[in-house]
Amino acid sequence: MVTGLLLMAGFVLLLAAVVIGAVMVAEAFGKQIIAEEIVLYSLPEALDGFRILFISDIHRRTLPAAMLSSLGHVDAVFLGGDLTERNSPLERLRMNMKLVTSIAPTYAVHGNHDYRADIGKVDDIIHSSGAVLLRDRNTVIEHGGGQLWLTGVDFPATGGKKGYAPLPPLPPGSEGSCRIILVHDPLWLSERGPQPANLILAGHTHGGQVVLPFIGHGHVDNFYRTYNAGWYEWPQVGAAGARAQLLISRGFGTAHLPLRWGSPAEMHVLTLRCPQD
């Protein structure tokens, strides 16, 4: 009798482990696209309706060509770093870059895992795809007679997570323009005050990747316990009380093991909007 109960309990535990494992793999290889409209108060009217495909932390995954090709019109693609990782086939990165650059003009920043790969070959693939790699520099995006500024913050190749270069200033006469900052790791903000930007896009956290009931995510740095995944506000340079919008993506790929729990894979389509009178 006791042996039978133990065997039954073991079977139930094994079945539960299999089910949980299947759910974790399914979340890791999910293809969720989150579409949202974002109001930016300094956005020129000409850019009202400007659509951005934002993807972060691809790692070893192959981007879904059919899904991305069916999105409709996209004006720009922003890649938030970790486009690949060590020992991931470079041909996969080449295919992913070919796909996104076929959708719209593409802008990218490095993540920490990009530097752990063969960064010279990684950058060659990015450049040859036609994408713009922003290493601590600004670029202007013009659309319909209006413009916005995009600033790419490069992950430190040396010096650890806090060895960042200063944020590049906009050219004289561009102060007060609509500006987006693209940075891989939101921890970049942890030692910085108000930012001269309207929107900040980041990734890196994977939303914790495995978020356990009653325990939560396993981030060590306290900053991530507050700024984990989703939408936040950050003090903005300018008028008193002004706030920049901050989006931290859970990312499309996974770090280390291809498993997720409570933090499904995602990418984003952001439609920029002017405020309504």
UniProtKB/TrEMBL annotation:
Domain Calcineurin-like phosphoesterase stretches: 50-207
One GO CC annotation: membrane
An MF annotation (GO) of this entry: UDP-2,3-diacylglucosamine hydrolase activity
Natural source organism: Paenibacillus donghaensis
Alphabetized Pfam families for the sequence: Metallophos
InterPro entries (alphabetical): Calcineurin-like_PHP, Metallo-depent_PP-like, Metallophosphoesterase_sf
SUPFAM superfamilies: Metallo-dependent phosphatases
Gene Ontology BP terms: lipid A biosynthetic process
Domain of life of the source: Bacteria
Protein name in UniProt: Calcineurin-like phosphoesterase domain-containing protein
